Amino acid sequence: MRYIELLCPARDYRAAIAAVDCGADALYIGAEGFGARRAATNTTEDIARVVDYAHLYGVRVYVTLNTILYESELKRAEALARELISVGVDALIVQDMAYREMGLPVELHASTQVCNMTPEGAKLLEDSGFTRVILERALSLDEIKAIRKATTVDLECFIHGAICVGHSGRCYLSRSQSSRSGNRGECSQPCRLTYDLVTERGEKLIRGKHLLSVKDMDLSERIGELIDAGVMSFKIEGRLKDDNYIKNVVSYYRRKIDEALASRPDCRRLSVGRSEVEFQPDPKKSFTRDGGEYMYSGKRAGVASFLTPKAVGEYIGSVATIDRRSFRLVGRREVSAGDGLCFVTQDGIVGTNINRVEGTTIEPNRMDGIRPGMEVYRNYDHRFTQSVERSRTRRTIDAECRIVLASDSIRAEYTDCEGLSVTVSRDAGLDAAKSSEKMRAVAEEQMAKSGDSIFRVTRVEVVGAEWFATAKLLAEIRREALSLLASKRAARQLPHDIRADDGTAQYPERRLSPQHNVVNSLSRAFYKRHGVEHIVEGLDSWATTVGERVMESSYCLRREIGECLKKGTKLRDTLYLEHGRHRYRLEFDCAKCRMSLIDCTNE
Asked: What is the pLDDT of residues 101-128, one digit of tens each?
């Protein structure tokens, strides 16, 4: 049996509870430090609360400690890791190999920031004691299959959300423009800025476009293929997203994964429980940059969004005519007052809100920039957002009851869907029931109630219906039994796969470049034990990045604009990207189909 996991982000305790209730099998959440999202931190006490709730449903909790560590931080990082382990977290997601050297009694998952792209690299991590390898988002299905063929380690991949245009953990673009580094949890997202594309002669081929801003990922139609390729964990990006995003997107992917599992009897979801939501999930109505499949089917063009790095939302029609205060919409979707609209222009997007709707006539908050023929997108659906906010969500675990009535006692046994059971008994002198049929109906009704517990009682077997017990007594026994069953679920230990590193595996490279992010003695010790002979200090610790590669990407700007060198382009000039005073030379590795940015600022 293969266990398949829907892994969901949690910005804080509230978001974590929302994700669990909507169907998450696992959560990833940031602690008080050392996480790649500095704006999404949580105290150990709050994480402990998340663990307590999640574990009721068998939902795992993984904590992101995925920044690189400087020497002065090693003791504090280890102390935090051990503190998190003590409150029951199920795994730590790490980038820095220092954690592997700390002898931590917990599963270690190799973060996508380790830049997990090759079978050799994944095999090294497996042999070094990592329980899971989190794949780089730029991999194709064939590349994922190759990694699966070379390993048995758990594989995790992103299926929804924002994409880092640079290979994860190998991007220093933010660091080249400020003191903020993505490898330290402080990326300023310069890839979403506007750039000019300039030749070595100074000719500006493209001006002021978002040339590095790629669309978000949506692999919702590929889940079955990925399961068959050997992926077991499906990850939604979004540790900075709000509760409504979590509810909507998690509910949607819960359904998509369940559909895939229904036709694969050898696969089962990792956690238990039935989630109920009172809205129809639709990820297009939450923040998304026109989701696509990026490099899933191989290297391709059409993955960038030059006009805007923002979420444009769902296409609803076009502008037919305008007047001073309104426009007429020709479209396929109804809109309402309070909706947010945006209009795509060659200079970017124009946004506004709807004040009033009368038929197909829309009166927006402002008419600036709106012209006939423009495509109209809705990036905020007021009614849908309200339905999500007002929706009650509940997750329940199926259980069955067997109640035995006798002349001198009552015994009720509740068993949940995983076989955990409790028994509650009462000594009682029961009279004969006037009607065994009526007594059976009363007992079934009372023992099937679940109130605000985490259980849904799906079946009640009544033995001894010829004896009479009051509804009040039955309810008292039921409440005690369900409380004990919940406590039993909370107290159980989830299975883990904690592995050791025997140090025999050989790293595929003998020399580590500055882009390998080694900045402390423990990380150096790890790589030395695994055969690395020469290690250059990580680029984040350098005073300047000028002259160094600050990004490597499977995205290629030449391919995106139709000037691929492998297809006989006439544009053979050396190309540069410029933003303000910052300048980057583009290098193209056509054999690997990759693009790099070299920092040439002030050269």
From this structure: 999 999 999 999 999 999 999 999 999 9
Tracing tokens 């023929």 back to the chain, one arrives at 373
Pair (327, 455) in one structural domain: no
Cβ neighbors of 491 (< 8 A, separation 6 or more) are none
424 burial (CB, 10 Å; 0-12 / 13-18 / 19+) is buried
Q: pLDDT (tens digit, 9 = 90+) per residue, 575-591?
A: 999 999 999 999 999 99
- Nearest 5 degrees, angle CA 11-CA 310-CA 116? 60
Rounded Cα–Cα distance for residues 518 and 536 (Å)? 8
d(CA 163, CA 100): 27
Name the band, by pLDDT with cuts 50, 70 and 90, for residue 603: low
Residues 272, 132: one domain? yes
Q: Which two tokens stand for residue 321?
A: 């005519």
Cα separation of 601 and 585, whole Å? 9
How far apart (Å, rounded) are the C-alpha atoms in residues 487 and 304? Answer: 50
Contacts of 320 (CB under 8 A, 6+ apart): 327, 328, 329, 330, 360, 372
Say whether pLDDT at 39 is over 80. Answer: no
Phi and psi of 156, rounded to 5°? -120, 140
β-bridge pairing 348-358 and 361-364: antiparallel
The pair of structure tokens assigned to 376 is 């109209």
Domain check: are 559 and 578 in the same one? yes
Using an 8 Å Cβ cutoff, are 292 and 560 in contact? Answer: no
Q: What is the CATH number of the domain that holds 141?
A: 3.20.20.70
User: 140 - beta bridge partners?
Assistant: none
Distances in Å between the Cα of 550 and the Cα atoms of 114, 174, 185, 514, 586 are 16, 9, 16, 10, 11
Same domain, 457 and 586: no
- What sign does the dihedral 233-237-240-241 (CA atoms) show? negative
Helix, strand, coil shares of the chain as percentages rounded to 5? 30, 30, 45
User: Do residues 430 and 373 share a domain?
Assistant: no
Please identify which residue in the block is written with the tokens 């305008």: 322
Q: How many CB atoms lie within 10 A of CB 255?
A: 16
Q: Kind and range of the H or E element at 559? A: helix 557-560
Question: Is residue 332 predicted with pLDDT exceeding 70?
Answer: no
Whether residue 347 is predicted with pLDDT greater than 80 in this model: the reply is no
